[in-house]
Amino acid sequence: DQQVKQNSPSLSVQEGRISILNCDYTNSMFDYFLWYKKYPAEGPTFLISISSIKDKNEDGRFTVFLNKSAKHLSLHIVPSQPGDSAVYFCAASSPSGTYKYIFGTGTRLKVLA
Amino acid sequence: DVKVTQSSRYLVKRTGEKVFLECVQDMDHENMFWYRQDPGLGLRLIYFSYDVKMKEKGDIPEGYSVSREKKERFSLILESASTNQTSMYLCASSLLGPANYGYTFGSGTRLTVV
Predict the structure, then answer these.
(1) Cα B22 to Cα A42: distance, rounded to the nearest angstrom
(2) Are the Cβ atoms of A43 and B4 closer than 8 angstroms?
(3) Strand partners, A109
(4) Interface with A, mutate which of B105, B109, B111, B112 (most A CBs under 10 A)
(5) What are the pLDDT digits (tens) for A68-113?
């Protein structure tokens, strides 16, 4: 039972345009969400996070939007750059106090020069 | 910067071998985790630990065990390696605190079982 879903396995975007990566979750008790970026042969690196009490968080070119009623979050990258080409994972944290994250299956973003 | 170091980047082992994957973190984090990454399946939690000598099963613990004798070191053990354990293994650590600390990951170990 996949509690965190990324339904698009891949996405191609032209350099300079907006990239939108989507993530859906099923458990309304999730209270913290993160996005990680992963290059081949490297570990994932933290990109941006959002608490369930907010609906938007922005950091430079990266913005995460949270729609709690739809149980949906999205990552916007504007403008997209070739160096953004990577696999992006969303992750959700349960409020059980264990600080354990559940990850989605990932979306491979390719930014075309 | 927190560093999480995995001892091997690439490993090739034979079916039936006992395999040890080592992970060390240098920032006194309480939590440590082992995940495996497979195409189309994302990151799946194998085991985690909140303290020395403490361990809890994740979502896919079968065929694995772990050891945490010291706070900074968390080892993943494949008791008898099988070809379906060929995967990228990722170790992570985090503080025992608010969820917004997230994880710091190691660079991963690509294990091939032949």
Answers:
(1) 16
(2) yes
(3) A11, A86
(4) B105
(5) 999 999 999 999 999 999 999 999 987 665 667 889 999 999 999 9
